[in-house]
Specification:
Elements: H1 2-15, E1 38-41, E2 51-57, H2 64-78, E3 82-88, H3 106-112, E4 126-129, E5 140-141, H4 145-152, E6 159-168, E7 173-182, E8 190-198, E9 201-206, E10 217-223, E11 226-230, E12 237-240, E13 249-258, E14 268-276, E15 282-289
Parallel strand pairs: 2-3
Antiparallel strand pairs: 1-6, 2-4, 4-5, 6-7, 7-13, 8-11, 8-12, 8-14, 9-10, 14-15
């Protein structure tokens, strides 16, 4: 299996120059109307800069569990200062008889596609930190995640993001209010992308780190930080048009989003990604569990 991994990388590198990936069609958002909401906010942690680490992964990627454990360890180390999103995309995220459940999403495929960041074309696991070019790289191998996350701590705090999540678990209806407060002037349009991630999903995973190697098929592997979908499309919506003045604010409301019944809503978190429309660099990231 390990040799097949390297053969695939060579083959994929050749074909990636001759054809583009085709993203899945956008899924029509389902709506749900709630009446008895639990309200949760991020006000206790919204006052400082945070970092996004995206881990592009797949259940058929034998080298991915080591990266996933590293990402989870960094999440524990940095607490609310770091948000991890595991994006299942590319060849190693495909299903077959051994790996029947798909963890891919329209939004993840679009982020990974030719109009996105093309991360899995370099082979999983790889990732990005704030979707930004740090010294030497934008596409970040797992061995440099810790160093790059540490560098990201020095990024400026440009925009404060205050989230209010209101969720009716019986109707599975989610309402979200997002307030942006710009702490300095900004010269490009800024977008808001709201996504859901889920923890503690159990399913099969290939894991080359297991000893003996014959046991590398893990039937009850626990997936964390898994991207599940977007509330407002793969690339979100314009939150504020440039030029943006210091101390200016804007509030975006997204109501009546129907949370898929396949998801464990007790393990779901709302993630707000605020980014530069031109460069796609992430300016701020916030994470909030939708149920108390």
């Amino acid at each position: 299996m390990k040799y097949l991994f390297y053969i695939y990388l060579v083959f994929h590198s050749i074909i990636s120059f001759s054809c583009d990936k085709v993203s899945q069609p956008n899924i029509v958002k389902q709506t749900a109307i709630g009446s008895n909401f639990d309200s949760v906010t991020n006000e206790s942690v919204s006052g400082y800069k945070k970092t996004l680490l995206e881990d592009y992964t797949g259940h058929r990627c034998g080298n991915c569990p080591v990266a996933a454990r590293l990402a989870h360890s960094l999440s524990a180390q940095y607490q609310s200062s770091l948000v991890v999103i595991a994006v299942h995309a590319g060849f190693f995220a495909k299903t077959n008889a051994q790996y029947p459940t798909s963890y891919t999403t329209t939004v993840g495929n679009d982020w990974d596609g030719s109009s996105g960041f093309n991360v899995s074309a370099a082979g999983n696991p790889n990732g990005m930190v704030n979707r930004k070019q740090y010294p030497g790289f934008q596409l970040v191998h797992k061995d440099t995640w810790a160093t790059t996350v540490n560098l990201a701590k020095n990024d400026p705090f440009i925009v404060k993001v205050d989230l209010i999540s209101k969720y009716d678990f019986k109707a599975r209806a989610l309402n979200v209010s997002t307030k942006l407060t710009f702490l300095q002037t900004y010269s490009n349009n800024v977008k808001l992308n709201l996504v859901l991630i889920e923890d503690s999903i159990i399913g099969p995973q290939l894991d080359y780190s297991v000893i003996p190697p014959a046991d590398d098929y893990i039937e009850d592997y626990e997936f964390e930080h898994v991207l599940r979908g977007a509330l407002n499309g793969s690339w979100g919506e314009i939150a504020k048009n440039a030029p943006i003045a210091a101390n200016s604010t804007t509030t975006i409301v997204n109501n009546n989003f129907a949370v898929d019944t396949k998801f464990n809503d007790k393990k779901l978190s709302l993630v707000a990604i605020v980014y530069d429309e031109v460069t796609r660099v992430v300016l701020q990231i916030e994470k909030l569990k939708i149920r108390k």
